[in-house]
Write a structure and sequence with these properties.
Blueprint lengths: L3 E4 L2 E4 L2 E2 L5 E2 L2 E2 L6 E3 L10 H4 L12 H17 L4 E5 L9 H4 L15 H17 L2 E7 L1 H4 L5 H17 L5 E6 L2 H7 L10 H11 L5 E2 L1 E3 L12 H6 L3 E4 L5 H12 L2 H5 L4 E3 L6 H8 L6 E2 L46 H14 L2 H5 L2
Parallel strand pairs: 6-7, 6-14, 7-8, 8-9, 9-10, 11-12, 12-13
Antiparallel strand pairs: 1-2, 2-3, 4-5
């Protein structure tokens, strides 16, 4: 059984730091956790009016079982390239940023009252099991802002959190990192729930940790908000989390590097250093390089958009160029807009996986196959 632990600033798998002994271009890689944002791995849409947008182009139907099966089948290739982790979420993430769809689709592992849906839990359990078999880590998010709006108040949110964590503990898997909420700044700005404020997240984490010990907890911020001029995570939150979780969306390498340096210079961080993990950024390999050069783990986020293969700019803003479910299936881009081709089938995907293979030393093993 795969067991994830933390030792100082390093992630460890089965008692050993990840990428043991690895140094690349003079920088320590041992202890990092390169990852992919795969929040749609357990996706389904309970709204029949929007479900059609996720139909596979080769069948004309959406199929959550096909989606999770193809995801699990793709994981060995990711692992061979040195990717050791990925993110899923009980409430997914933005699948298509078109208002009439984005505000109506219903990908939610919880009922409005906060009960865990058995079918959703089953798909998550299968993903956890496959990752366990491969020696991989799963970053499991609980909440995503737009699906929080479908829940019936804060009591439902607390119920959902407890049921999700009880389920995760009950699987017996030890390869889990918990992400309470996706980008708490966005949650606070767009929902009425005060419990997600940075000053109150320690309260939530401490309550959940007391009720569900044995798991590793954090909650995610946007890296652009870590720059001093725009505010930093409160010291108490840095002290409370088991690992610091950032998103790099909208940053270029200099800004991302500055955010990481500022974070790591905070007195609360210096007093108790812990891993820094980015699990959402962009398809931009320059940001990947900025992260590991500052001893931070990095996560590939590829929304996928129309004509993505025809641009050389990985920073192209995804909201302006939605990707529809047109085929052929083999050429579908991205990992976040269903239907998803979970293979390494585009220039952006290949650039990321090949760079991780190079940085981690997996390149020689892959090329020998």
């Amino acid at each position: 059984m795969t067991e994830l632990t933390i030792s100082g600033r390093a992630f460890c798998i089965d008692g050993r730091p990840t990428y043991p002994g690895r140094v690349f271009e003079g920088h320590k890689i041992e202890g990092l956790l390169f990852n992919v944002r795969a929040v749609q791995a357990t996706f389904d849409d309970a709204n029949p009016e929007t479900r059609r947008y996720w139909a596979y182009p080769d069948t004309g139907e959406w199929d959550p079982e096909r989606n999770v099966s193809e995801f699990c089948a793709a994981l060995p290739a990711w692992r061979e390239h040195g990717v050791l982790a990925f993110t899923i979420n009980f409430q997914g993430g933005g699948p298509l940023y078109v208002p009439e769809i984005y505000h109506r689709y219903d990908n939610n592992g919880f009922t409005p009252q906060g009960a865990l849906k058995p079918a959703y839990a089953d798909r998550i359990a299968r993903v956890l099991a496959r990752a366990d078999e491969l020696g991989m880590v799963v970053i499991v998010g609980l909440f995503y802002w737009i699906n929080l709006l479908k829940m019936e108040g804060e009591p439902a949110i607390w119920r959902a959190a407890h049921e999700a964590l009880e389920f995760l503990s009950g699987t017996g898997r030890r390869n889990i990192l918990v992400e309470i909420a996706n980008e708490i700044e966005v949650v606070v700005a767009r929902t009425p729930y005060d419990i997600f404020r940075p000053e109150r997240q320690p309260e939530m984490i401490e309550a959940l940790r007391a009720a569900h010990p044995g798991l590793l907890y954090s909650t995610s911020h946007m890296a652009s908000n870590v720059v001093p001029a725009e505010g930093q995570p409160p010291a108490r939150l840095i002290e409370t989390v088991d690992y610091v979780l950032l998103h790099g969306n909208g940053t270029r390498p200099p800004r991302l590097e500055q955010a990481l340096r500022d974070l790591q210079a905070m007195p609360a961080f210096l007093k108790n250093p812990k891993p820094v993990l980015i699990n959402e950024d962009s398809p931009a390999v320059p940001n990947l390089d900025a992260a590991w050069r500052n001893y931070a783990s990095w996560g590939y986020y590829d929304q996928g958009f129309h004509d993505q293969a025809n641009t050389e700019d990985p920073y192209t803003w995804y909201e302006d160029k939605p990707r529809w479910n047109t085929g052929p299936y083999e050429e579908l881009s991205g990992f976040q807009t269903p239907p998803v081709n979970w293979g390494i089938n585009t220039p952006f995907k290949r650039a990321f996986f090949e760079r991780v293979a190079e940085v981690t030393g997996a390149k020689d093993r892959v090329s020998c196959r």
